[in-house]
Design goal:
8 strands, single chain, binds pyrazine-2-carboxylic acid, binds zinc ion, 199 residues, 6-stranded parallel sheet
C-alpha cells in the first residue's frame, strides 16, 4: 500500500512569533524532517491567503480575532491576518526540510472562502485537486502531521477518511490552537470518522 506523508501548514505564522502562533508549533519541525525519508510520496500544504481575506477579523468591523461569524458556507472562526501570499509569515519554517516535497498544495487563496482542509475548501465542495494527485500516484494510506491539530490537520484528516483513504494522524508531530475545547472536539470527530491517531 503506497503511503504519503502530508505535512500541513508548517509555516512561520503558525510558529512562535508568528501572526497566528500555535503553542509549540516549531517543535514539530525536527520530527517532520526525520519522518520524510520514510515515505515514497511527500506532500506539503501552505495556507496562502490574499491580503484582506474574508477569514481575517480585520475585514469584519466590530469583530475581533477568534470570534465566530456566519458565512454563506457556514460558521467561520475569524483569525488574525496570517499567511498572506508572498509575506514572510507565509513561508515555511526556516528549518523545515522542504526539498523532499513532491507537491506543495496552496489553499485558502480565494478571498471569499477559507480552506482548512487540504482536500476541500470550507464550503466542503470546492476541491483543491489533492485527491486526484494522490489517486493517480496510487496512494492509499496517508499519515498527517503539522499545524494545527484542531483545524487544518483535523479537517484534512476527516475529508481524507471520507474520501476512502486509510488515514492516520501522528500527534507528536502536530500542535493545536485549542480554542474553547476545539482540540478535544477534533480528536473525537477524527475518531468517529475512522481516523487513527497515534501518540
Ligand atoms: C489554520 C486557522 C486559519 C491551520 C489555517 O493551519 O490550522 N488555522 N488558517
Ligand atoms: Zn488560514
Amino acid at each position: 500500500m503506497t503511503q504519503a506523508l502530508i505535512v500541513i501548514d508548517v509555516q512561520k505564522d503558525f510558529c512562535p512569533g508568528g501572526a497566528l502562533a500555535v503553542p509549540g508549533g516549531d517543535e514539530v519541525v525536527p520530527l517532520v524532517n526525520a519522518m520524510l525519508g520514510d515515505f515514497p510520496v511527500r506532500v506539503f500544504t501552505q495556507d496562502w491567503h490574499p491580503a484582506g481575506h474574508s477569514s481575517f477579523a480585520s475585514q469584519h468591523p466590530g469583530k475581533g480575532p477568534f470570534e465566530m461569524i456566519e458565512m454563506p458556507y457556514g460558521p467561520q472562526v475569524l483569525w488574525p491576518d496570517h499567511c498572506v501570499q508572498g509575506s514572510d509569515g507565509a513561508q515555511f519554517h526556516g528549518d523545515l526540510n522542504t526539498d523532499p516535497a513532491d507537491l506543495i498544495v496552496r489553499k485558502g487563496f480565494r478571498g471569499e472562502v477559507d480552506s482548512y482542509s487540504a482536500f476541500f475548501e470550507n464550503d466542503h465542495r470546492t476541491p483543491t485537486g489533492l485527491e486526484g494527485y494522490l489517486r493517480t500516484r496510487g496512494v492509499e494510506r496517508l499519515v498527517l502531521v503539522g499545524l494545527a491539530t484542531d483545524f487544518c490537520v483535523h479537517y484534512s484528516a476527516v475529508d481524507a477518511a471520507r474520501l476512502g483513504f486509510d488515514v492516520s494522524v501522528c500527534l507528536p508531530a502536530c500542535r493545536a490552537i485549542d480554542l474553547d475545547g476545539s482540540l478535544a472536539a477534533a480528536l473525537e470527530a477524527m475518531r468517529v470518522e475512522g481516523v487513527s491517531v497515534t501518540t
